[in-house]
Amino acid sequence: MKQVPALKIDGITIGQSLAIIEYLEETRPTPRLLPQDPKKRAHVRMISDLIASGIQPLQNLSVLKQVGQEKQLSWAQQVISSGFNALERILQSTAGKYCVGDEVSMADLCLVPQVANADRYKVDLTPYPTISRINKSLLTLEAFQVSHPCRQPDTPPELRA
Amino acid sequence: MQAGKPILYSYFRSSCSWRVRIALALKSIDYEMVTVNLIKDGGQQFSEEFQALNPMKQVPALKIDGITIGQSLAIIEYLEETRPTPRLLPQDPKKRAHVRMISDLIASGIQPLQNLSVLKQVGQEKQLSWAQQVISSGFNALERILQSTAGKYCVGDEVSMADLCLVPQVANADRYKVDLTPYPTISRINKSLLTLEAFQVSHPCRQPDTPPELRA
């Protein structure tokens, strides 16, 4: 796919972030990233897919190149706002402390990086209080901090935390 | 389980809706279909009524067991977990990873980049070349992946969620006149799948909302 991420694990290589996460969940099940109840699992996957299919691909690097430099910012803003409008509504019925109930799930793993993209493209988050609240809570957790783009081996000096 | 059949909100030509129609057919799940015309009246998916049902303003959406699920793969995984026979995901976690990887390659990496709303943004002049480029790029990657995963179908010899994603995407490729010669594995698998009844009854040319000129 000529894309990241790819995970080499247990003798195979898996592309596609959600396929990787589901494999980790099935082979290293603790702590859970998907609830036990099938209906809650459906909500987790729906939110994850909303972001991973419905927002991110439309504003990733290769698409923005195609759109052209002049239109990039407005395109990214429009795509993210459109998706966040839908997500904010869905969260009204699914969210507790986090995206689905009170346990961190795969949906939360998708939310935080997408909010970071929203910030990067200067999307106004005022219309999305639930998204903002959940994002803020998640960023206090260690896993979300150690994995942050500003703390990676390849983070350029000017962006390093 | 709640009494009353599941309700699928579908558009005949929506490749994402087709994936779910195939799953429902394979699992012999009886359901009602409510068609949503994505073009008529400025797009019926934008009606207040439909938005309340699915804030994504997209098809497919499935009303089942007292909940409404959007996103085709989330729907299919729910069906798999609650109506597990016949399987749409293999038992082995590594094979399941391959199925999900291929499904996501199509459902995140190709289809969204050539769906109706993006093509509108791209503008009429550039639509065809944009769609062709997006599909070819994705199919290049998929053809390579299939070299190591495919048997009779995308992953081994059993029909899986990956196959449900493949056939509708090949139909889109045909629609946008993508040359499939560079993708012999994709073509072979697509051809085999189309002989199966579930892929035929769910076909866009046989739906309640198929226009007369496109009807089989």
UniProtKB/TrEMBL annotation, chain A:
Pathway: Amino-acid degradation; L-phenylalanine degradation; acetoacetate and fumarate from L-phenylalanine: step 5/6
Keywords per UniProt: Isomerase, Phenylalanine catabolism, Tyrosine catabolism
GO cellular component, one term: mitochondrion
GO molecular function, one term: maleylacetoacetate isomerase activity
Protein name (record): maleylacetoacetate isomerase
Chain ranges of the GST N-terminal domain: 1-32
EC number: 5.2.1.2
Cofactor: glutathione
Organism annotation: Vicugna pacos
Automatic annotation (TrEMBL), chain B:
Pathway it works in: Amino-acid degradation; L-phenylalanine degradation; acetoacetate and fumarate from L-phenylalanine: step 5/6
Protein name: Maleylacetoacetate isomerase
Cofactor(s) needed: glutathione
Compartments it resides in: Cytoplasm
Family in the record: Belongs to the GST superfamily. Zeta family.
InterPro entries: Glutathione-S-Trfase_C-like, Glutathione-S-Trfase_C_sf, Glutathione_S-Trfase, Glutathione_S-Trfase_N, GST_C, GST_Zeta, GST_Zeta_C, GST_Zeta_N
One of the record's GO molecular function terms: maleylacetoacetate isomerase activity
GST C-terminal domain mapped to chain residues: 92-212
Sequence ranges assigned to domain GST N-terminal in this UniProt record: 4-87
UniProt keyword annotations, A-Z: Cytoplasm, Isomerase, Phenylalanine catabolism, Transferase, Tyrosine catabolism
EC number: 2.5.1.18, 5.2.1.2
GO BP, sorted A to Z: glutathione metabolic process; L-phenylalanine catabolic process; L-tyrosine catabolic process
Predominant location category: cytoplasm
GO cellular component: mitochondrion
